Structure of Spermidine/putrescine ABC transporter permease:
Amino acid sequence: MNSLPAVRSPWRTAILITGFTLLYAPMLLLVIYSVNSSPLVTVWDSFSLRWYVQLFHDSKMLNAIGLSLTIAVLAATTAVVLGTLAAVVLVRFGRFRGSTSLAFMLTAPLVMPDVITGLALLLLFVAMGHAFGWPDRGMVTIWMAHVTFCTAYVAVVISARLRELDRSIEEAAMDLGATPLKVFFVITLPMIAPAIVTGWLLAFTLSLDDLVISRFVTGAGANTLPMEIMNSVRRGMNPEINALASLILLVVGIAGFVAWRIMAHKEKQRIRDIQKAARG
């Protein structure tokens, strides 16, 4: 019995086109108006790169970019270390007294509204400041706040990877005399390395993008990039924002393309290895 050929629905195509248009049309307009010489962001005058030049001479915006990148790198790195340790404890140590509480505290930031998290951290930092005289609100408090919620995301990603691993390899290594610490660094860590990289990139993106929590815990003179953009938009739409957003899209696009090429190359190599093993 011959199966009927699949009929492509025009509605499906229309919905797909509409979705991509709504997603990418604003980005395209943003890039177009970033090379507009007019200070009015909705009125086209002529092609110009003046806003890119002005952006690189804007010390406040450059300082905000540098602060955000520094905090994002530090927060992502710290969150990876803490999240990996937490995931190993939850997955490899089994049930122990306090394991349920630890799992709850790790997952709570995932569902907690940013306003509540920011307010709670603000009250904590104020109480610490009165009790110990530290920390002063600024870069350090923003970093600590970002580590708090980024660790939860990293722990979830790495926990999922740990649960998928075959423990027989680790058990075989310990049967041959390897210590648990050596097994972790020599066997477990390389196997969960893709999840660690994914967790780091996720934490970096979340930290770089955060606005609500950062506004609660920041101090005078410590403005991250989202905060500086928000302050600039409140004073009126600045064409520099279009130029900055276009550069971010360019960097993200290049990074995504490079990552796609690397993954495609590794997938082809994996298929070739499987075919070679099947022939042998």
